[in-house]
């Protein structure tokens, strides 16, 4: 990996385009290094993972609405949409599939200086691959680039500190991945990256306070914008530049300011793109920093016993967990029994309470209104708080994966004064956890979430195709989608008429 110092440059400064971060990323996208076998295996795992969570979310209202918008844009030899037979304009297929993948907060994650869900790269890259008749090998190369770029940006550039939503790293990564997929030149990818960043930089309010369905739409929008940016760049249209480093650019006015410096590490020429191996998927449908607390709650519930005897629970954790999903956010909505599902999955206090009571977590039942509004749950929920522990913050940012921690230490005080303490640094399903996910676990997750949604024969067909991705020829990538019976789609709320 090669480090690149990224800072603001005045317009009057000599700043060659070849030193722009967008150009450096474009060079990574055009590099011809082969995809390593373990990287390819994980890419296939994540295609399975995306399809699994898309199946589970297929009849939810936001997904049904996004799908209805895609249906209004049919396209001969276009891209596939989860649940449907047919072919649709690639940017709208990326949109609909992106919402389906993101809706339940149940796919992969990478946490660094910024947090990210790099599986969000797959819907736009796959949609363009289907539309343009690319091969499975092309798709794998494109996805490897998408993951590499988003994770490298997330390692180096913090967005949430400046209240910018994390999808600002996704627009550029998806554009770069599409560039690799299509074999575009460095100049074209450079312009597409600049446009994608410019059109996908938004505030963090989408994940603050009363969180709405836009939380799922935001990454889908970034993927759609990346597809459109590539289309314009291929036609010869340019982008604001230098997009990150310009005097009125992203760093100067949206991030650290004119005096800020970032060190971004990118693969050297000829170096394999392996960043996907540093990411991890979810066993539970909740914000990633709730994964270890769920496992911890399940482990502690027997020791605690009668939960009515709990006086207080304090979760000692990292700064990020405390301020994003903990009481450090100062969001009263995180204690609202009538809050949206999106709000509840960003409340570690709610998640820990329900996991303690149920000893399990379910992507639907754990968020049901009748579940959230149980009096005993509300009572326990309001006894839980978080606090930042500098050691947990240090470990959150540790480069050594053996030290890295995204969990918490729970101190449970009972009415009789007894204090029960336990901690868990990483989720059981993490690559360094007690039960790391591998191909069998990804397949099991797909089978579980696809039950009563995708008929068994279609499940078998999809799994066979996806595990043979590299061998899929031009025109065969539509196999990496699934269809469902009409009666399944009929369970979804009817989408009201919009503009399309």
From TrEMBL:
Q: Does the keyword Magnesium apply?
A: no
**Species in which this protein is naturally found:** Nocardia jiangxiensis
- Which UniProt keywords are given for this protein, alphabetically ordered? Lyase
Class in the EC hierarchy, top level: lyase
- What InterPro entries does the annotation carry? 2-Methylcitrate_Dehydratase, MmgE/PrpD_sf, MmgE/PrpD_sf_1, MmgE/PrpD_sf_2, MmgE_PrpD, MmgE_PrpD_C, MmgE_PrpD_N
Q: Name one GO molecular function term.
A: aconitate hydratase activity
Please give the NCBIfam families that the UniProt record associates with this protein: PrpD_hiGCgrampos
- The protein's name in its UniProt record: 2-methylcitrate dehydratase PrpD
Q: What is its EC number?
A: 4.2.1.3
The record places domain MmgE/PrpD C-terminal at: 284-469
The record ties this protein, via Pfam families, to:
MmgE_PrpD_C, MmgE_PrpD_N
What region holds the MmgE/PrpD N-terminal domain?
19-262
